[in-house]
C-alpha cells in the first residue's frame, strides 16, 4: 500500500484532493477508493449498489452517490453533488465496467443463451464506453476550467490481447485505450492529464458470480471447476502469480499524484509481465 512510510501524503501531493471512483463499491474500484482515502484524499464512490460500501476513513472524507453511468443526467447530477459536497473535483477514476461472456457463434446452440446478441452488445458497450464518455466529459469540463487534474481510465489486458468468449468486453477496453490517447491529445494543452491502467489476471475476490463463471466456462469449452482451477495457476504470468487489487490501486494513486506529472496519454499494464502492450 502506498500510504506507508515511503509514499507519504506530502510526497504524493494528494492530501485534500477530491477523487471520484466510478464502480467503486466492490472489486478493483473499492480497492482504488480505499487507497486514495489512505493517502488523505476526499473520495466519492459512484456505483449502482443500493447502499454505500464501508471504508476505513476519517469522518467526512467519503461520500457515496448511486449513479447509472449510462445516463448523462445521472452523471451530471453525481458530479454536481460532488462539487456541492467537496467544492471541486481533482481526479476521476473511470472504473465502472461490466463483462458478459458470449460467443460470436455458438456451434452447439446457434442463437442460444451464450451466443452474442444485440442486447448484450448494447449493455456492455453502454457501461464500458458510454459511461466512460459521460463521466470524462462531465468531470473534464471542471478540470479544464481549473487548468489541472487527472482522468484515469480503467482498461484491461483483454483490450490489448483479445479474449476468448469476451469479444465485446475486449473491444470496449481497446476502445478505452484509444479514448485515453485521443483525450490526452485534446486535454493536455489544458493542463489535464489522461492516463489508463490495464489490470491483468487478478486474485479471486469472491465477486465472480456463478452465472458469470458458467457463461465464461461454456464459451471456453471447459467446466466451471476447471475455470476456477485456472484462477489459481501461477504459470500464466512471468511473475508466477496473480495480481493483488492493492497493486492496481497503488498504480492509480501514483498516476494521480505529482510524481507522475509527465506521464500522459498511455495505458500502463499491471499484468505481471503477461501483457506486453
UniProtKB/TrEMBL annotation:
The keyword Signal does not apply. Residues 17-204 form the Ketoreductase domain. Keywords: Oxidoreductase. Signal peptide: none annotated. This is Oxidoreductase, short chain dehydrogenase/reductase family protein. Belongs to the short-chain dehydrogenases/reductases (SDR) family. PANTHER family: 3-OXOACYL-[ACYL-CARRIER-PROTEIN] REDUCTASE, SHORT-CHAIN DEHYDROGENASES/REDUCTASES FAMILY MEMBER. It comes from the Bacteria. One of its GO terms (biological process) is bile acid metabolic process. InterPro entries: KR_dom, NAD(P)-bd_dom_sf, Sc_DH/Rdtase_CS, SDR_fam. It holds the Pfam family adh_short. GO terms for molecular function: oxidoreductase activity, acting on the CH-OH group of donors, NAD or NADP as acceptor. The keyword Oxidoreductase applies.
Amino acid at each position: 500500500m502506498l500510504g506507508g512510510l515511503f509514499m507519504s501524503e506530502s510526497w504524493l501531493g494528494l492530501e485534500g484532493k477530491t477523487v471520484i471512483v466510478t464502480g467503486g463499491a466492490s472489486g478493483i474500484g473499492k480497492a482504488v477508493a480505499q487507497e486514495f482515502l489512505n493517502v488523505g484524499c476526499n473520495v466519492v464512490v459512484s456505483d449502482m449498489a443500493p447502499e454505500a460500501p464501508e471504508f476505513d476513513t476519517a469522518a467526512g472524507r467519503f461520500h457515496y452517490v448511486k449513479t447509472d453511468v449510462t445516463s448523462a443526467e445521472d452523471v451530471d447530477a453525481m458530479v454536481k453533488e460532488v462539487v456541492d459536497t467537496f467544492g471541486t473535483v481533482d481526479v476521476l477514476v473511470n472504473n465502472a465496467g461490466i463483462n458478459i461472456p458470449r460467443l460470436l457463434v455458438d456451434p452447439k446452440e446457434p442463437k442460444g443463451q451464450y451466443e452474442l446478441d444485440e442486447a448484450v452488445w448494447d449493455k456492455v458497450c453502454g457501461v464500458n464506453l458510454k459511461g466512460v464518455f459521460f463521466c470524462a466529459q462531465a468531470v473534464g469540463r471542471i478540470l479544464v476550467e481549473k487548468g489541472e487534474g487527472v482522468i484515469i481510465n480503467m482498461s484491461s489486458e483483454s483490450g490489448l490481447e483479445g479474449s476468448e468468449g469476451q469479444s465485446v468486453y475486449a473491444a470496449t477496453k481497446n476502445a478505452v485505450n484509444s479514448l485515453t490517447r485521443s483525450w490526452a491529445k485534446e486535454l493536455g494543452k489544458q493542463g489535464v492529464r489522461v492516463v489508463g491502467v490495464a489490470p491483468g489476471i487478478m486474485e479471486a475476490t469472491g465477486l465472480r458470480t456463478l452465472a458469470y463463471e458458467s457463461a465464461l466456462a461454456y464459451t471456453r469449452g471447459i467446466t466451471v471447476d476447471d475455470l476456477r482451477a485456472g484462477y489459481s495457476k501461477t504459470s500464466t504470468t512471468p511473475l508466477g502469480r496473480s495480481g493483488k487489487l492493492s497493486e492496481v490501486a497503488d498504480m492509480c494513486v501514483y498516476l494521480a499524484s505529482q510524481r507522475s506529472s509527465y506521464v500522459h496519454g498511455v495505458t500502463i499494464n499491471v499484468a505481471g509481465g503477461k501483457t506486453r502492450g
